[in-house]
Amino acid sequence: MATAPLTLRMNERDNVAIVANDGGLAAGTALACGLVLRDRVPQGHKVALADIAAGAPVLRYGIPIGHAERDIAAGSWVHERLLKMPQARALAGLPMPGDGHTTPPAALPPLAGYTFEGYRNADGSVGTRNILAITQTVQCVAGVTDFAVKRIKAELLPRYPNVDDVVALEHGYGCGVAIDAPDAVVPIRTLRHISLNPNFGGELMVVSLGCEKLQPERLLPPGSFAIADEREAVPLDVVCLQDEGHVGFMSMVDSIVRQAEVHLQRLDARRRVTVPASELVVGVQCGGSDAFSGVTANPAVGYCTDLLVRAGASVMFSEVTEVRDGIALLTSRAATPEVAQAMVREMAWYDAYLQRGSADRSANTTPGNKQGGLSNIVEKAMGSIVKSGTAPISQVLAPGEKLQGRGLTFAATPASDFICGTLQLAAGMNLHVFTTGRGTPYGLAAVPVIKVATRTALATRWHDLMDINAGRIADGAATIEEVGWELFRCMLDVASGRRKTWAEHWKLHNALVLFNPAPVT
Ligand code: CA
């Protein structure tokens, strides 16, 4: 880490820069440009590079992240109490392809020759892990399923060494919900599509209670799934706990264990094969962001996103409230007018959803974001959007929809780490990239999560939780391109099972959390 005073400015128009030094800089410190700090400025926080008059814009990433509440002298600490947040950009009159003055970016040049070792599925998708997932229709069965899974792991899994894990898809949905409400489509299709995630090898196994609202045929209607091989005539494999054949708790557990073994046998017969990098389906998101997220980790992820798109892979970026303030940047990158309109549709839906709860996008930022130097959602959004790189946006998914086709996709989700990860799993993600500045030990049971630290201090302190240190960019020890390539190669290794992420090593994972915008009863 640099010991000389170091500040980072993102755009030549900016009238603020952030302090890079670990521990911040003391009042009286002279910067390289000659400016002397009037206040102590914590690491990641902004310093005024020029006098900013009351009401004048405070510019970062070349755009106003707010307006000065009062006169701010050059060298002052520009904290969030000095900033008035701008209004959200209206959704009418956005730049759209075909409007006569917006040209979507050209397709990126192809990148050939990269492969990984994956599990090819009957539907053409590719898994990065070989996992038996047990789908549940309702939370009521979670305890029994969990008991059975512990037995499966202890007694069966050692006999099937090619199977990586057994995962119970536990969730809070299924009963006590307004299942016919229009928005119930979101949690239901999310659960359906998660059970079809490529890492589960097309093996569908469901545990049901019996009396719940979300009946197995409603969760997975005939025709909504393809069974892994020629066994098309085989009905959905359901263990129903209320079946009269079950006498006592242990007979339920025995049924689950017995059925699981049928699927384990088939999964165990699978082998990894060499597939092109275009079979990667990567979900990117950030959590516990700080002012370095938009300077180090997210730009490196953005560079890697471009590499993936060039290699023909699928990349999803998400988190509606974190892109809302940059919507004009995104509609102008849409490949077609239809894609731009779909993006506006998702933003409008989310604006209305927040309004129903008397909230707006400013509800996004956390105390930790602010402590880390992010004053408001506009500043956070500018740093978040860079994860999407520079490719044209070719597709938009509503929450819980399944991805079709390749390239760069905006998958609309809340920014909540668990809900975003859950919805990206439903979309068909087989690898997850997660950037963090404040630090979170986030992980998912179904898909490897590569965690990228924004600062060297975090990567050093959490040396056995962070997989990549993008803080080297702020230290001057690596470039954005170098870290982007490092991440790309790390992805191929992790996808191939040659390398485990730290979250996998420690078996850390968070709960699936369904997005349920519909009422509960
Ligand atoms: Ca997030």
Structural overview:
- This protein has about 525 residues and is an alpha/beta fold.
- The chain folds into three domains: about 1-85, Archaeosine Trna-guanine Transglycosylase, Chain: A, domain 4 (Roll); about 130-270; about 280-505.
- It contains 14 helices and 21 strands.
- The strands form five sheets. It has a seven-stranded parallel sheet, sandwiched between helices.
- The longest helix is centred in the middle third of the chain and has 20 residues, at about 250-270.
- The radius of gyration is 24 Å and the shape is globular.
- The mean pLDDT is about 95.
Unreliable runs: none
Number of helices, counting only DSSP H or I runs of 4 residues or more = 14
Q: Given the helix and strand composition, which structural class is it?
A: alpha/beta
Helix content: 25-40%
What coarse outline follows from CA principal-axis ratios?
A: globular
Estimate nothing, just give the exact number of structural domains.
Answer: 3
Which ligands are bound?
calcium ion
User: Termini separation (Å)?
Assistant: 54 Å
The biggest beta sheet reads:
7 strands, parallel
Rg from Cα: 24 Å
Mean pLDDT: 95
